Amino acid sequence: MSTIEVNKITPVSGGTTVQVGESGDTINIPAGATIANAGTASGFAPTGITSAMTSGTGLAIDSAGHITQPLQSAFIVKLGSTASNVTGDSTAYTVINYQTETIDRNADFNPSNGTFTAPITGLYLLTFRFHLQNIANNMNDNQVKMQTSNQSHSILGEMSSSSIGFSGSMNATGSLVVDMDANDTATMLVDFRGGSKVVDVHEDSFFMGYLLG
């Protein structure tokens, strides 16, 4: 076996590529050796895995085998204070404007209008909890829904508070897996009709989301 000892290999004048070996050859990297890359690596990903990243860590596996996705789109938001903006006898849904962000990876949630915008096409897990107060007995057609760009998901609908005998406060919770295209949006809406009181959406209400894949 011949040995070549050099400090640097560069293309010949006018060239841009250095080739090592021919098709079918095996290039051996011995145990303990390190390949250091400060440029762009291509062609090293296993079959079925692609990456367009040029910096940062999109997928990490620690020594115990735990897998994390540090840049995966995810958000957790709450109301900054109790919102008293859902009025009985309204003719339209009220968009709940969550203003306090606990987590917002990739900055996909807009706290100025309570809207999550999908960064890419995929399946998203969306979860919410509404803590509603000051509900009047005569309110009916009470509705809570999650609105995405391509579908309306009714969570609490066509339910009369007087017919089931509750008043005062209630919780509405739910989780959905939704199919969203890139730039589709998701918001949470509430509508209570048939009464004159204002329904308060308590500040511990939350909205969460995570890109499943």
Q: What this model shows, in words?
A:
- There is one protein chain.
- This protein has a domain at 74-211: Jelly Rolls (Sandwich).
- The protein is built from one helix and 15 strands, in the order E-E-E-E-E-E-E-E-E-E-E-H-E-E-E-E.
- The chain has one helix spanning 161-164; strands at 60-61, 67-68, 74-78, 83-87, 94-95, 100-105, 109-110, 115-117, 122-135, 140-148, 151-159, 168-180, 185-193, 198-201, 206-211.
- Strands 3, 4, 6, 9, 12, 14 and 15 form a seven-stranded antiparallel sheet that branches. Strands 5, 7, 8, 10, 11 and 13 form a six-stranded antiparallel sheet that branches.
- Mean pLDDT is 80; it is low at 158-165.
Question: What layout of secondary structure does this protein have?
Answer:
Layout: E1 60-61, E2 67-68, E3 74-78, E4 83-87, E5 94-95, E6 100-105, E7 109-110, E8 115-117, E9 122-135, E10 140-148, E11 151-159, H1 161-164, E12 168-180, E13 185-193, E14 198-201, E15 206-211
Antiparallel strand pairs: 1-2, 3-6, 3-15, 4-14, 5-13, 7-8, 8-13, 9-12, 9-14, 9-15, 10-11, 10-13
Low-pLDDT regions:
158-165
Question: What's the shape?
Answer: elongated
SSE string, helices as H and strands as E? EEEEEEEEEEEHEEEE
CATH topology value of the domain at 74-211: Jelly Rolls
Q: Which radius of gyration do the C-alpha atoms yield?
A: 27 Å
The largest pleated sheet is described as: 7 strands, antiparallel
| CATH architectural category of the domain at 74-211 | Sandwich
The class by helix and strand makeup works out as mainly beta
**According to CATH, what is the class of the domain at 74-211?**
Mainly Beta
Helix content: under 10%
The beta-strand count equals: 15
Ends apart, CA distance between termini? 49 Å
Number of continuous helical runs? 1
Mean pLDDT: 80
Which percent band covers the strand fraction? 35-45%
